[in-house]
Structures are given as structure tokens and as C-alpha cells.
Amino acid sequence: MVQAWYMDESADDPRLPHRGDPCSLVGLEQLRRLGVLYWKLDADKYENDPELEKIRKERNYSWMDIITICKDKLPDYEEKIKMFYKEHLHLDDEIRYILDGSGYFDVRDKEDKWVRIFMEKGDMITLPAGIYHRFTLDEKNYVKAMRLFVGEPVWTAYNRPADHFEVRGQYVEFLAQTE
Q1: 18 labelled ligand-binding
Q2: Within 10 A of 81 (CB to CB), how many other CB atoms are there?
Q3: Which residues are CB-contacts of 112 (< 8 A; sequence separation ≥ 6)?
Q4: Is Iron among the key words of this record (predicted)?
């Protein structure tokens, strides 16, 4: 089951859990109200998983690749880690399925507070287009993830502020309707 919580305000190493004190947990329903979707799958059978295939078909996730984020495997590792952690949005949904390792997706809630989502092997998440978010590894410094897209991949991240994009306006409208 997914673990999510409101983050503290500390500027310490982003790879630490950053749980608020007291820790305020965020459940699946709260994540859904932010447009975040979550599945728990069997990552050991990702190559022939009927459940994954069903999700991909239902949601039109037609393109995929696999990325390994660690010092030994990712070119320009330090720069990429910094880039992933800058607050940004995308014009398309961001879909990630953790095949091994772990890390954190941070998303902004309706009040612009950070919610940290711990992702580990078997967790699959969809962040909606227009949501401000960022990603970092945890202290293990390793994750292997499947990246999925509807159609051809678009890798462009728009750092905050990016409120002028139509997709951001649509997302804000979605948030207003889920109150």
C-alpha cells in the first residue's frame, strides 16, 4: 500500500523522508482528489503481467521504456537528479512503475503544501498533467522504473511558475471541482 504524508519544511538532504512532526498521513482518497492514481502490481512479472496490460489498454499507455537511476547507470547523474527535483509540471500525465529500488514523488496539494509519496517496487503512479511535482531518490540512491506514455513520449518539464499553460488551468479547475 502506498505511503504518503505532508512534508516538513526542512532544507535537509531531499533523500530523507521529511515527515512532518507530527506526521500527517495522506491516504489514497486524498491522492485521488489531487488527480493522482495508484496501483500495486507484481514487478517481478512486469514483462507478462495481465493486470499491467489491462491498465495500459484501458488508459492508452501505448509507449514505454525503462530507466535506471543510479550513479553507475544514468549519464549526467548529478545534473539529472537536480533537474528531477526542481518543481515542475508536464503537459501530459507522468506515469511511473517502480520495478526495483525506491524514491519519492512530491506533489502540491490544493493549499500548495508538499505531499511526499514513497514509491517502491511494485508501485505504479499516474500524476496528472498540470500538477506541480518533483522526484528524488531516497537514501538507497537507486530506482529502476518503467516510464509509460499515451502516444509518443514528451520529455519537456516546465519549471514553476508555469501557470500560463492551458493544462495547468484545467488542473486547477479539476481541483476546484473535487472539494
Answers
A1: no
A2: 18
A3: none
A4: yes
**Contacts for 151-157: CB closer than 8 Å, 24+ residues apart:** 151/60, 151/62, 151/63, 152/63, 153/63, 153/65, 154/90, 154/91, 154/92, 156/90, 156/91, 157/83, 157/86, 157/88, 157/89, 157/90
Task: Copy the grid coordinates of residue 120.
Answer: 517502491
CA dist 53 and 14 (Å) reads 33
Residue 31 to residues 23, 136, 137, 138, 140, Cα–Cα distance (Å): 16, 19, 20, 21, 25
Residue type, 120: E
164 is in an annotated binding site: no
The structure's pTM equals 0.97
User: pLDDT tens digit string along 66-121?
Assistant: 999 999 999 999 999 999 999 999 999 999 999 999 999 999 999 999 999 999 99
Under 8 Å between Cβ of 125 and 37:
yes
Q: Is 133 labeled as ligand-binding?
A: yes
105, 117 contact by CB (below 8 A) = yes
Q: Are 66 and 100 contacting, i.e. CB atoms less than 8 angstroms apart?
A: no
Q: Which three cell numbers stand for residue 179?
A: 472539494
